[in-house]
Amino acid sequence: MQTWLVTGGAGFIGGNFVLDAVASGIRVVNLDALTYAGNLDTLSALDGNPGHVFVQGDIGDRALVARLLAEHRPQAVVNFAAESHVDRSIDGPAAFVQTNVVGTFNLLEAAREYFRGLEGEAQAAFRFLHVSTDEVYGSLGDEGRFTEETPYAPNSPYSASKAASDHLVRAYHHTYGLPVLTTNCSNNYGPFQFPEKLIPLVILKALAGDPLPVYGDGRNVRDWLFVKDHCAAIRRVLEAGRVGETYNVGGDAERRNIEVVKAICALLDQRRPRGDGRPRESQITFVRDRPGHDRRYAIDIGKIRSELGWKPSVDFEQGLAATVDWYLGNAGWAQRVLDGSYRLERVGQEA
Ligand code: NAD
């Protein structure tokens, strides 16, 4: 049986990844600091499952990470842990530098030490996979797509901190021979996403009858990928990716923000019409643009598709409908996030 050390596994993508990994027979040691973005409710299906060991702690705590590596002897480290919200990085960049840069550095140091102590097949099989974003490439005009060769040009404190961590990961391969892999993915959506991000924010505000804030003119373009497809891509890269390489991951689904918001309104109007019968589009309000707001991201997934045979399996309209249905069917999960009670649950953890 394989054991993986997954960091940030109580967050949105990490949580989905841990649920899938444990279901497929991987033993997961899940290290998460449980910041505001960490939510153990997401993992409640794993309560009592010996395939999941949850540890509350910081990736920057090198002694703790060293102890976990020594004790559990994982075949892989998968690093999701990060501060991940662009708006928060504008208001308070320090936490982003601390976790995304200094934290990743400490995690790499612990992994390097552990890797050095491995021998033979165990050493050959070990992987350190770093999960990153396409935002490191900056902003595009109307044409073109990011490839793995696109120069880094991060514009927000969030993307700059992720770019810095990507560079450290790369350097640990070139300098110390650590067998690293990096994935740079576009915007994810799906179950268990914290409602500060566009899609769950709009779903929950639309249901509550609140104004639906859209930045600027709403014409900023993002590429969207269903979270389960991202998790499958990470699994594929872990399995067969070439050490030291980076792989772009995306959904081939570029949409303007305003189109996404209108599509959510239409889905909710069908499923749960407003009491007064008015369309939810009437709740849309345009708000002053985010400073330094990147205009367009688009990602070329040719490399992961041709080298590793991965491609997205869920198209955007299908995935969006499934996501809206998930939030309608899991109102309890969302309510506990909205009223803050999800933070009170801190049971079943190891350290
Ligand atoms: P998230 O904010 O939902 O979850 C982050 C998790 O990391 C939380 O559980 C949090 O408690 C934990 N964490 C934060 N600081 C920590 C620390 N110092 N030590 C240990 N744990 C810590 O984020 P997400 O959306 O699931 O993103 C996961 C990763 O994927 C991030 O690295 C992010 O940059 C990257 N990514 C996200 C997207 C997206 O659309 N959400 C797209 C591409 C890449």
Automatic annotation (TrEMBL):
Catalysis: reaction(s): dTDP-alpha-D-glucose = dTDP-4-dehydro-6-deoxy-alpha-D-glucose + H2O
Any Pfam family the entry gives: GDP_Man_Dehyd
UniProt cross-references to Gene3D superfamilies, sorted A to Z: NAD(P)-binding Rossmann-like Domain, UDP-galactose 4-epimerase, domain 1
Enzyme class: lyase
Residue ranges occupied by any NAD(P)-binding domain in the UniProt entry: 5-321
Keyword field: Lyase, NAD
Enzyme Commission number, as recorded: 4.2.1.46
CDD domains found in the cross-reference section: dTDP_GD_SDR_e
Requisite cofactors: NAD(+)
Record's keyword annotation contains Lyase: yes
Taxonomic superkingdom: Bacteria
Family: Belongs to the NAD(P)-dependent epimerase/dehydratase family. dTDP-glucose dehydratase subfamily.
PANTHER family given in the database record: DTDP-D-GLUCOSE 4,6-DEHYDRATASE-RELATED
Protein name per Swiss-Prot or TrEMBL: dTDP-glucose 4,6-dehydratase
